[in-house]
């Protein structure tokens, strides 16, 4: 039963003739069938029913072993992110917001809506239901099959956009050693190394595969590339303090911190004196009858450039151990098992921590007071972060507004986030047959992912409060903190007193039990009716334990509560293959699910295969899909965030002028025009654009649901040998998608007087400052995507100059809407939605030589800011980001007598750089001023060499 030599050879031959880049899997096994009257059927991704045809009703794209090697990439995730159907997903070029993981997205529907399998079985995911593809060692992979169709009825939750099924190497014999090294040619950075050892043995009754691999990825710094070398933060280089307090004799002070305060109440117009380069700006303190003091030397004390302190490509080291085996216990019973453990050590680095104090920055920051007795306080009175404490000290709360201070701790050095991530997964199963017509399999999977993250460069707000408070001196074991000097005023002793290192731990445990059976039911005039049935139980539990100072809000980083929870999911499915006519087959499927948190769900799918002639397959599907809420969706602890938001209840401009809103042609004060703002104090001005919000999970969420349709054809004309074409149209609609209600939406509805929105917003009644917005999750979003995929390939007959193959893979998006808003053709920071993406490849082989040329293309896109704000080139904005072409080449040579192969390649042959989103580098919607998901972050010729020897 298990000696599948004829079919295995046919499949390997078909894959070998595929392009060395992403190819549609349209291999024919006719030759193998002609050689033997009985060919074993195999399972093709997209269906549980085994068959002899490699083509099904669903479009499947395959990356073979040759394509993996020719890519010059060391991560399965990086390889998959280059296919035209891929959307924006997390990768190691995400420094701010990344964690070392690499995901895959299809159709711009999100990585959480794509199911990842290994040998047809689930892989372990994160708390957010995304899979880190770096946990799968590429050296153990035979090929990758990408199902570009909804498949929840066949595979269960998450398969809304499609399925990635990674097939590991089978029947491997011998020892193979492969080493790899590469770096950016001009800059000499971004070096990568790998060493892989694979060992395999087979016998008449079993086989064993063993693989060890190591990968080192060194960083690229944002400051080492012109496009990413500059970024403006909201804090100044030396800091900023705003004091709105008419109890101070100096008046209202709004100054960029310089080298100290001298004669604060005196006007100084000497441009060469940078001790107190201050001039009065009349009117800006009009709401309290005072002047505001501004620093005139903005060119010297400008906004802080954080970019040089950031990684553009983050570093990591990965070590993997993989073993798989099988043993025939009897003629019709086989034991199968595999085990993998991967350890990843990764890091991200950001600019030094900006400390933000005062009520404008939330409850935690407002508890810090700068006491009059602090030896560095130049004002001679206490600056209170909260009105209630100021009132208790005798200040008039109606005339007092707390201070707001920002100071970047440059002296403390950068913030560094280091992950130690370990993933292991073990599977044991049985495979058997019941006669010639039916086969079955059962398995148990146990997996865990555990991550420790250490963060350095954080600040302890309790210590800062003590260091700025009363009676802070050596006798109280307290070190006073100087927030009022320029760079260098914060000493190492001060840093040691107020800083701390954070340790957080998170993890997920997976248990999966499954039984599947399939075979022939009965025969119809057009052929045999096939069926597959199965049951599965999946249990997941997860946790996230932040550092205690993070939980209590004492950290200068965002506050975050602990996460703990899990779910159980029981499922059963049935699938049929019904030959209605000799040339027409229907493949209906149904799955029933029982989830411990939301109850029952059912999904269905129907596929159609029509062969009007031997050369042509017309195919189509209709499928329902669903995605169960993740552990993070259901059980995540509350977490702070500080997005840039505009408070609609702001009553005065920066110059102190009252704001009026046009109501039926009549200028009306904000408090009267917007009912929700009626209680806001007169004269309230939003002093900080970053408003604290709390991200809240929702245990009562329902699953997302989807409907997808595909129709297309596969054409292999017999009159042109070597030519293949596939064209597939798709449309996917996701309803009840899980997403946050939205802080801007809550603010707008709150200002309009909506009681529902008002319960999620907290505002200080004395100062008017918003102290919190609770941004909760709900089932309300809707995605609509539509497009056409096309693949054309031609393998020329062999010539005296070798064999050539040409391939084009194109993804054309027609619609990409979220909640009715069309996003197509627009670049939103690191998430771009081009209308066209494609690859073009030329493969050449002659004797022991081979070469590959791959071109990746991203269509032009509009800059988001031009769409959202109507900005033009006159505003210093790049209006249109032009089409982007990157060329990769490689040359290989095989020494047959030594079983050795050498490959030399260059990624980004012409060192193509993307266009910066902003010509003046003033405002950027992405961290690096360009998207790291659509464009090559190296921006340099990456040269690599690989040597592989087999013993």
From TrEMBL:
SUPFAM superfamilies: Porins. Residues 1-24 form the signal peptide. Keywords: Cell outer membrane, Membrane, Receptor, Signal, TonB box, Transmembrane, Transmembrane beta strand, Transport. The keyword Transport applies. It is found in: Cell outer membrane. It is a multi-pass membrane protein. The keyword Transmembrane applies. It comes from the Bacteria. Coiled coil: none annotated. Residues 381-909 form the TonB-dependent receptor-like beta-barrel domain. Residues 541-563 are annotated as: Disordered. Residues 54-163 form the TonB-dependent receptor plug domain. Belongs to the TonB-dependent receptor family. PANTHER family: PTHR47234, TONB-DEPENDENT RECEPTOR. This is TonB-dependent receptor. It comes from Rheinheimera nanhaiensis E407-8.
């Amino acid at each position: 039963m298990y000696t599948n030599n004829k079919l295995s050879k046919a499949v390997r031959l078909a894959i070998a003739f595929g392009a060395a880049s992403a190819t549609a899997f349209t291999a024919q096994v006719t030759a193998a069938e002609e050689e033997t009257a009985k060919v074993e059927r195999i399972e093709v991704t997209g269906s549980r029913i085994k068959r002899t045809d490699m083509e099904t009703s669903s479009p499947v794209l395959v990356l073979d072993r040759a394509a993996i090697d020719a890519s010059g990439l060391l991560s399965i995730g990086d390889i998959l992110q280059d296919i035209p159907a891929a959307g924006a997903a997390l990768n190691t070029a995400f420094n701010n917001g990344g964690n070392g993981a690499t995901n895959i997205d299809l159709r711009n529907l999100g990585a959480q809506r794509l199911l990842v399998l290994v040998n047809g079985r689930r892989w372990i995911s994160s708390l957010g239901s995304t899979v880190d593809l770096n946990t799968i060692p590429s050296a153990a992979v035979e090929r990758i099959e990408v199902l570009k169709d909804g498949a929840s009825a066949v595979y269960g939750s998450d398969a809304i956009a499609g399925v990635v099924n990674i097939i590991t190497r089978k029947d491997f014999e011998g020892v193979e050693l492969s080493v790899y090294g590469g770096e950016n040619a001009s800059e000499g950075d971004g070096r990568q190394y790998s060493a892989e050892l694979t060992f395999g043995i087979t016998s008449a009754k079993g086989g064993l595969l063993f693989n060890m691999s190591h990968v080192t990825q060194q960083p690229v710094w944002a400051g080492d590339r012109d496009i990413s070398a500059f970024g403006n933060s909201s804090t100044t280089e030396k800091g900023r303090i705003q004091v709105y307090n008419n109890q101070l004799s100096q008046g209202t002070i709004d100054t960029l911190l310089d080298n100290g305060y001298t004669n604060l109440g005196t006007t100084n117009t000497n441009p060469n004196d940078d001790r107190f380069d201050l001039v009065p700006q009349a009117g800006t303190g009009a709401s309290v009858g005072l002047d505001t003091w501004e620093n005139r030397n903005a060119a010297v004390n400008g906004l802080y450039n954080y970019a040089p302190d950031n990684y553009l490509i983050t570093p990591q080291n990965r070590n993997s151990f993989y073993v798989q085996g099988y043993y025939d216990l009897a003629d019709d019973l086989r034991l199968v098992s595999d085990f993998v453990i991967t350890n990843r050590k990764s890091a991200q680095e950001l600019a030094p921590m900006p400390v933000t104090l005062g009520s404008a920055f939330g409850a935690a920051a407002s508890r810090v007071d700068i006491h009059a007795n602090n030896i560095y306080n130049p004002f001679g009175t206490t600056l209170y972060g909260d009105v209630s404490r100021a009132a208790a000290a005798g200040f008039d709360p109606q005339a007092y507004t707390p201070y707001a201070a920002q100071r970047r701790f440059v002296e403390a050095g950068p913030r560094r986030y280091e992950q130690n991530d370990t993933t292991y997964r073990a599977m044991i199963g049985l495979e058997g047959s019941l006669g010639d017509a039916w086969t079955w399999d059962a398995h148990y999977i146990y997996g865990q992912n555990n991550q420790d993250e250490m963060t350095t460069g954080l600040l302890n707000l309790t210590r800062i409060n003590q260091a700025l408070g009363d009676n802070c001196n050596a006798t109280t074991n307290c070190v006073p903190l100087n927030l009022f000097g320029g760079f260098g005023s914060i000493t190492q002793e001060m840093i040691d007193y107020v800083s701390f290192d954070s340790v957080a731990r998170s993890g997920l445990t997976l248990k999966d039990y499954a039984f599947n059976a399939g075979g022939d039911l009965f025969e119809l005039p057009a052929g045999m009716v096939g069926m597959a049935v199965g049951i599965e139980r999946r249990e997941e539990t997860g946790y996230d334990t932040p550092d205690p100072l993070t939980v209590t809000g004492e950290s200068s980083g965002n506050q975050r509560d602990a996460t703990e929870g899990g779910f159980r999911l029981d499922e059963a499915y049935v699938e049929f293959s019904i030959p209605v006519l000799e040339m027409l087959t229907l493949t209906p499927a149904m799955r029933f699910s029982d989830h411990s948190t939301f109850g029952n769900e059912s999904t269905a799918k129907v596929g159609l295969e029509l062969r009007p002639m031997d050369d042509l397959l017309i195919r189509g599907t209709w499928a329902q899909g669903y995605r169960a809420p993740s552990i993070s969706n259901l059980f995540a602890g509350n977490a702070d965030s500080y997005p840039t938001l505009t408070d609609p209840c702001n009553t005065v401009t920066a110059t102190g002028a009252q704001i009026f809103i046009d109501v039926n042609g009549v200028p009306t004060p904000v408090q009267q025009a917007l009912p929700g703002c009626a209680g806001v104090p007169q004269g309230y001005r939003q002093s900080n654009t970053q408003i604290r919000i709390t991200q809240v999970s929702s245990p009562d969420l329902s699953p997302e649901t989807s409907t997808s349709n595909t129709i297309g054809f596969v054409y292999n004309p017999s009159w042109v040998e070597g030519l293949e074409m596939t064209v597939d149209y798709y449309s996917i609609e996701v309803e009840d998608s899980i997403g946050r209600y939205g802080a801007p939406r809550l603010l707008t509805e709150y200002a309009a007087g909506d009681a529902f929105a008002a319960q999620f917003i907290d505002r200080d009644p004395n100062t008017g400052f918003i102290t919190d917005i609770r941004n909760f999750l709900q089932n309300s979003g809707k995605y609509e995507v539509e497009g056409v995929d096309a693949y054309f390939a031609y393998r020329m007959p062999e010539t005296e100059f070798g064999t050539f193959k040409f391939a084009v893979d194109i993804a054309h998006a027609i619609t990409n809407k979220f909640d009715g808003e069309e996003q197509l053709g627009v670049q939103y920071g690191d998430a771009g939605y081009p209308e066209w993406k494609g690859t073009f490849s030329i493969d050449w082989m002659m004797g022991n030589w081979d070469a590959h040329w791959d071109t990746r293309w991203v269509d032009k896109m509009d800059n988001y800011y031009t769409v959202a704000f109507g900005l033009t080139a006159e505003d210093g904005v790049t209006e249109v980001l032009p089409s982007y072409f990157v060329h990769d080449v490689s040359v290989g040579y095989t020494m047959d007598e030594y079983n050795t192969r050498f490959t030399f390649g260059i990624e980004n042959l012409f060192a193509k750089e993307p266009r910066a989103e902003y010509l003046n580098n003033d405002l950027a919607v992405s961290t690096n001023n360009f998207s790291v998901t659509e464009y090559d972050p190296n921006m340099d010729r990456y040269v690599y060499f690989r040597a592989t020897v087999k013993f």
